[in-house]
Amino acid sequence: MEVGFKYKEPLAKKPIVFERILGEKPGGGMVANPAFNLPEGIAVGPDALGARKPIKCYVVQEDALANATAVRIMKNSGVVAGDFIGKGKIAAESTEVDYDAAGYDLVTVSLGVALTKGDRLYQAKAASVAAVEGVAAGYYDALSTDEGALKVVASDAGEGEVLLATVQASYRGSKIVAENDYVMLVAVPVAKVTGVDAEPVYFPEYLLGCDVPAGEGDKLMKLVNIAVVRKETVPVADEVLALMSGIKKV
User: Fold this and answer.
1) Do 213 and 150 reside in the same domain of the chain?
2) Which residues of 209-238 are buried (b: 16+ CB within 10 A; e: fewer)?
């Protein structure tokens, strides 16, 4: 009988992220002291002062409708209230995080797009902004070659022409309209959507070549810029990988 024997659970099997590493920064590079444990393969990029910091990756744990106001995110992503969470060109600010939920973090955020379990969302620089500009009905300046352009005439308007008096009554162009000018009729008000697309919080330069524990200060780390990674395990959103020409996933 052995005395003092203690049973220890075996360590969880670490997922394989890199299939092949083909290029890295010679001598490695400094990574700023992280606020959460960084997994191998996470993308890092420079902040405004040049310090390399992680681009968080949020893995969706359950399907969510476009009108959902909360998203289940895999634990240990580093998500905090105030993070901007992005998918595609859309991003919104998270306002609350419930870390006590079993098996996931419940993040309060309204993205307005449907999500599927397994989707990888990215940490964005800011919320995407959309605005609607109204275009009122009336006559606007045009070129003679524009489709639907009308030539302004003083009288006897024929096909492809419009009376000067008619144009003047609802002219919305930028000059004093005159005979022989060309105009375009907007028959009903038109709404034009403009905006600012979302982008990652930092431009991704490298993938980390190993795990980095939180709270142990800045560290000199292996930084990978050419590699083949596994799509099931790499902790990077597709939108971020798309900016890294040397990284391919299989």
Assistant:
1) no
2) beebeeeeeebebbbbbbbebeeeebbbbe
Same domain, 245 and 159: no
For 133, the token pair is 């500009």
The CA distance from 64 to 119, in Å, is: 11
Please say whether the beta carbons of 195 and 181 come within 8 A.
Answer: no
Residue 127, classified by CB atoms within 10 Å of its CB into exposed (0-12), middle (13-18) or buried (19+), is middle
Using DSSP bridges, classify how beta strands 150-153 and 161-163 pair: parallel, antiparallel or unpaired.
parallel
Q: Which domain holds residue 58?
A: 18-130+197-249
The per-residue pLDDT for range 174-189, each reduced to its tens digit, is 889 999 999 999 877 6
Query: When comparing pLDDT for 207 and 113, which is higher?
Result: 207
41 belongs to a structural domain: yes
Report the 10 Å Cβ neighbour count for 44: 23
